[in-house]
Amino acid sequence: MIPTFTRHLLVVAIAVIASACAAPTPAPAPKHGPLETAMLERVLGMPGTVQAGEFKVTIPQNDLDIRVDGFAIVPPMGLGSWAAFTPGPRGAVLMGDLVVQETELAAVQATLVQHGLRVTGLHNHFARETPSILFMHIGGEGPADSLAHRVRAVLDRIRALRGGDPAAAPARSVNSALDTAAIARGLGAHGQSARGVYRITLGRPDVALTAHGASVSSFLGFNTWAAWQGTEDRAAVAGDFAMLAHEVAPVVEALVTRGIEVVALHNHMTHEEPTIYFLHYWGVGRQADLLAALRAALANLGPAAR
Q1: pLDDT confidence of 6, banded at 50, 70, 90?
Q2: Handedness of CA 270, 276, 277, 279 (dihedral sign)
Q3: Inter-residue contact 98 to 156 (CB < 8 Å)
Q4: What is the DSSP string of 21-65?
Q5: Average per-residue pLDDT for the chain
Q6: How many domains does the chain have?
Q7: Which residues of 86-100 are buried (b: 16+ CB within 10 A; e: fewer)?
Q8: Does residue 27 belong to any structural domain of this protein?
Q9: CA–CA separation, 200 vs 184, rounded Å?
Q10: What is the pTM of this model?
Q11: Using N-to-C axis directions, what is the helix angle for 287-298 and 245-256, rounded to 10°?
């Protein structure tokens, strides 16, 4: 019979051996380092915007003359390319959206793939637009300087195809006479006016969205927005809804039954958690009627609608 003291030593020894053989406890996730924004601006060849440690460049497509139902689609109405960077586990996470003409699509896609970036979405934002354009969402992960060089190669390819920098063309504006105060009250947020367009952007703070080990913010494209032009009697509104799966059907119903067209429904990114669906819409009519339709659709977003 083993003495009590000896049995105690055996138990301790077995516990120590088991602990040594067990899988090591994972180390805490490293804190993502800050972006070198000066380097990003230098590599991309243009100034950007910094918000909460994230960085974005925007390229207005001033060289494209796009029209829908008699309305000129100027950049604030959604005619802009952009690329945004946020700190991530491998250095940075890239998300963006590129405006391409149909004749440019193959060449831009080839350049994108050649430089190790991903196409994460490809679709329209409008219906009946002339000439036809497409919007190509892009993604990537890695050292920020490497991602910036790859984005620069794609932007340079677009410039070569267009014969110049899209942003360098003269900036056009539209004439509008909207009641912007009523729009702000109706949507519960203040917007910005630019080139005759009044635009409001609404984030989704109720959803903690992540992708590739990084948080995805409104600044990176996770948002709902509405861009307005025209008059109170005949306005045009274009925009995008960011939705969880259970929100899609009621938002579509609210818009369609109130006279706003749903022109696209798709993804913008991959590997995000939870999955997010994006809906683009277009409406023409009285400002008050369009505003009521958007309010009805917005009522289906967030915890209060569940």
Answers
A1: very low
A2: negative
A3: no
A4: HSPPPPPPPPPPPPP-HHHHHHHHTS--EEETTEEEEEEE-TT--
A5: 91
A6: 1
A7: bbbebbbbbbbbbbb
A8: no
A9: 8
A10: 0.88
A11: 160
